[in-house]
Write a structure and sequence with these properties.
Helices cover about 75% and strands about 0% of the residues. By secondary structure, it is mainly α. Helix 8 packs across helix 9 (about 175-185). It starts with a helix and ends with a helix.
Length: about 260
Amino acid sequence: MSALSLAVRDSNTMLRRNLLHAWRYPSGTLNLLLTPIMMLLLFVYIFGDVMSAGIGGGGADRSEYIAYIVPGILMMTIGSTVIGAAVYISMDMAEGLIARFRTMAVYRGSVIIGHVVGSVLQSIASVVLVGAVGVAIGFRSTDATALEWIAAFGLLALFALALTWIAVGMGMASPNPEAASNAAMPLILLPLVSSAFIPADTMPGWFRPIAEYQPFTPAIETLRGLLLGTEIGHNGWLAVAWCVGLTLLGYFWSMALFNRDPK
C-alpha cells in the first residue's frame, strides 16, 4: 500500500472517530449552534426595528433587515461551531490520546486531519440548519444564480476550513479544554465588531478600519453580494486572502505543535 493510500485510510479512520464522537455526544455541538440561532432571533424580533434604521440610509423594514443579517449570522455560525474543534483536540491532548497516536504505526497527520475535516462538516451542517431558520423567518435570495450559490457554498466551506485550522492550533496550545474554549472565544466575538449587524460605514471613524479589515467583514460582504446581489468590490479577494492566510497559519502552527517532542 502506498504512502498516500495509508494517509487517506488513517485520516478516514480518524474522521469516523470524530463524527461518531459528535453523534454520541451532541450536546456540545448543540450548545454552540444555539448561540447564532438565538442571536438571529434576538436581533430580528427584539432589535430589528431599531437596527434596520441604519440599513440603506434608514427606513428599511424588517424583511430587509433579515436579508441583511442572515449572511452575517451564517459566518458567525462557523465561528461558533469550530470552537468544538479546539475543545475536542485539547481533550485528546489532556487524555494522552495524541501521545498514544504518535507512537502508533499510523500516518502522523491523520489525527489532526480527522479533527479538521470533521469540524468543517459539522460547520456546514450547522450553517444549513441556521440557514433553514433564516428562511423560516423570511430570508429570501431570489436573484442569486446557480453559480453564485455554488460560490457562496465554497466561500462558507473555505472560511470554515480556515477557522478550523486556527481553532485546532488554539486547542493544541492550550493546557486543558477549558483554556481551549476561552482561547477560541474571539471566533464568536469578532462577528460582533464586524458588518454582521450594521454597516461598517455607520461605525465611528476610529473604529471603522478595525471592523472593515478583520476576517469576518470581507467574508460577510462577499456572501451578501453572492446571495443578495449587493456590491462586492474588494471584499472578494480580501475574504479569499484571509481564508488562505489563516489556513496556512493554522496548518503550520498545528503541525509544529503536534510534531514537537513531548515534555
